[in-house]
């Protein structure tokens, strides 16, 4: 009896051990791809061309595609099993996927998307929510959740997704990878399931900026061009105020990296709320949403309402017939949006078109061909899995206010990781004008290593609250000085710049700006001294050389003035003012 009991315990123990082992194996199997894929497959590139022709540009790279891109012989699932059941296999592969395979890359599978690619949470109750490798208890972000996770988990070299109102940018920010949203209309959407035609654009993820750039060059099919450095880095101060973490922790990474690479003189600050109020007048005609029962107008929040209105309207136009015929069980987010859709008129649609055109024109005017707008990618850290935060009005207002700028204007945008905060990824976004995709890709490639270096430094340093406050106060004083300068109140401008210098004495821009005001007053000795100080702090400050050259010319130091103008021309060969001034002085005095 004792022997039988012992044998029973042995068998029971083996059984439990087997269950534990099987459980571990199952967990390992799930975690191997982090739940990123819905289908594994292999699309192989064509053979390499014979020498001396160059190999395919994407040779040796693997990629995954979000399950909104058609692949011949496979049903495009659109994040919902009922869609998959009611649709035939694709007759041909989407243009984007074909282009990448022909470019030398190998496609290894299709990845999970949010249900009908509508949401930005990354959660999918049908196929499972992919695990965020950067923060496993947090959502990965959507709609292209699986594509971002596949890159974050090093399962592929790059992946592609669709960005309507953040479908690539949000998961890139939440998973700590690079995510690029192309300019609207620059890459073919042939063979891509539509969410909102006016907003949809192809995007891609990578960890390596050089891979991001190579993929971009293949997809955009851009001709060779000399790489250009940005001449303006415009920080949208009011957008950074939406952040739920320390503003300076993110902004200073960009500021320090820009200073190191290009000099502080290209840094500028802008209040987008005020700028859009004056440049996008049609926003005022769009019905504003009440917040906590009060009607508070905000141009950035109004943009969010425009983007969501267009998405809902075009989504219904594209898929209402299927929803009525298939009667699928839809995610609560989609159901709520569809049921809350107000009656749409032709006037509403036309107003949205006007807003889009005005916004694109405003951003093009602000950035021109060589400017970059800097904003947060998202305002919050990734919400917890299953949390209620995703549905809160406050969260949605903040996140869509930031995402709608590129979505409505059609500009290109890239989300870049800049370290961690409380074990969650941090990110920042760079925006270039519509059609400026190559310029933006080149800028990312040039800046990325320095941004990561500065992010690492920032994570290890703990600036005192007082130091942060003084720097912020100095920037405010400088902006007041700039406003006074525009209004030709020279002495008032000097007072504000002096205040900024007292608060932060190692900033070349403050001295250079004060030199400009001294020049207007005819105080040439003071202008020369301030310009010299600015140059000692920043050897690449072109404006300081120009201002010192002007001051020295007025003081009669012609040879020194020629040297200043000539050096400004070395730093910025296309600067007409430096070229004309140097040539004029040479003719007169040499």
Automatic annotation (TrEMBL):
Sequence intervals crossing the membrane: 6-23
Gene3D superfamilies with a match to the protein in the record: Amidase signature (AS) domain (3.90.1300.10), Tetratricopeptide repeat domain (1.25.40.10)
Claim: Cell membrane is one of the keywords in the record: no
SMART domains with a match to the protein in the record: TPR (SM00028)
Alphabetically ordered keywords of this record: Membrane, TPR repeat, Transmembrane, Transmembrane helix
Stored Pfam families: Amidase
Domain of life of the organism encoding this protein: Eukaryota
Glycoprotein is among the record's keywords: no
TPR repeat ranges per the UniProt record: 474-507, 508-541, 542-575
All copies of domain Amidase, residue ranges: 55-208
Protein name as annotated: Outer envelope protein 64, chloroplastic
Lineage: Eukaryota, Viridiplantae, Streptophyta, Embryophyta, Tracheophyta
């Amino acid at each position: 009896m004792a022997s039988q009991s012992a044998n029973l315990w042995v068998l029971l123990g083996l059984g439990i051990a087997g269950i534990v082992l099987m459980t571990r194996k199952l967990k390992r199997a799930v975690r191997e791809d982090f739940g990123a894929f819905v289908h594994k497959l292999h699309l192989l590139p064509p053979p390499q061309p014979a020498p001396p022709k160059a190999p395919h540009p994407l040779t040796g790279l693997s990629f995954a595609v979000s399950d909104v891109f058609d692949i011949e012989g496979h049903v495009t699932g659109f994040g919902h099993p009922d869609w998959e059941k009611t649709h035939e296999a694709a007759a041909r592969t989407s243009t984007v996927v074909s282009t990448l395979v022909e470019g030398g890359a190998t496609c290894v599978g299709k990845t999970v998307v949010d249900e009908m690619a509508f949401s930005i949470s990354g959660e999918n109750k049908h196929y499972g929510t992919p695990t965020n490798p950067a923060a496993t208890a947090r959502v990965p972000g959507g709609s292209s959740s699986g594509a971002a996770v596949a890159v974050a988990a090093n399962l592929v070299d790059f992946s592609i997704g669709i960005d309507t109102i953040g479908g690539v940018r949000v998961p890139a920010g939440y998973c700590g990878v690079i995510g690029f949203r192309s300019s609207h209309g620059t890459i073919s959407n042939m063979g891509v399931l539509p969410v909102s035609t006016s907003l949809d654009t192809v995007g891609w993820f990578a960890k390596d900026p050089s891979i991001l750039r190579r993929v971009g060059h293949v997809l955009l099919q851009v001709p060779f061009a000399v790489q250009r450095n940005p001449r303006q880095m415009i920080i949208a101060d009011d957008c950074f105020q939406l952040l739920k973490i320390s503003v300076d922790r993110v902004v200073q990474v960009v500021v320090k990296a820009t200073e190191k690479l290009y000099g502080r003189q290209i840094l500028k600050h802008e209040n987008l709320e005020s700028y859009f109020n004056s440049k996008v007048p049609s926003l005022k005609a769009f019905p504003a949403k009440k917040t906590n029962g009060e009607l508070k107008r905000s141009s950035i929040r109004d943009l969010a309402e425009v983007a969501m209105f267009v998405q809902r309207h075009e989504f219904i136009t594209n898929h209402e017939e299927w929803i009525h015929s298939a009667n699928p069980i839809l995610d609560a987010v989609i159901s709520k949006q569809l049921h809350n859709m107000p009656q749409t008129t032709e006037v509403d649609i036309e107003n949205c078109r006007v807003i889009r055109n005005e916004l694109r024109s405003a951003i093009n005017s602000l950035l021109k061909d060589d400017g970059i707008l800097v904003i947060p990618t998202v305002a919050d850290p990734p919400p917890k899995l299953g949390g209620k935060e995703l549905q809160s009005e406050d969260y949605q207002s903040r996140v869509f206010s930031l995402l709608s700028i590129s979505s409505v204007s059609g500009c290109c945008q890239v989300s870049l990781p800049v370290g961690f905060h409380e074990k969650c990824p941090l990110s920042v976004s760079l925006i270039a004008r519509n059609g400026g995709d190559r310029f933006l890709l080149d800028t990312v490639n040039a800046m990325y290593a320095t941004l990561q270096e500065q992010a690492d430094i920032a994570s290890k340093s703990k600036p005192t609250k007082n130091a942060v406050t003084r720097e912020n106060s100095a920037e405010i004083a400088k902006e007041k000085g700039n406003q006074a300068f525009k209004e030709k109140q020279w002495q008032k401008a000097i007072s504000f710049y002096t205040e900024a210098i007292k608060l932060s004495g190692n900033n070349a821009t403050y001295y250079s700006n004060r030199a400009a005001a001294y020049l207007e007053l005819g105080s040439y000795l003071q202008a020369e001294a301030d310009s010299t100080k600015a140059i000692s702090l920043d050897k690449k400050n072109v404006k300081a050389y120009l201002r010192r050259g002007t001051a020295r010319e007025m003081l009669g130091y012609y040879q020194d003035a020629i040297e200043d103008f000539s050096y400004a021309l070395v730093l910025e060969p296309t600067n007409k003012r430096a070229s004309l001034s140097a040539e004029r002085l040479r003719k007169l005095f040499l």
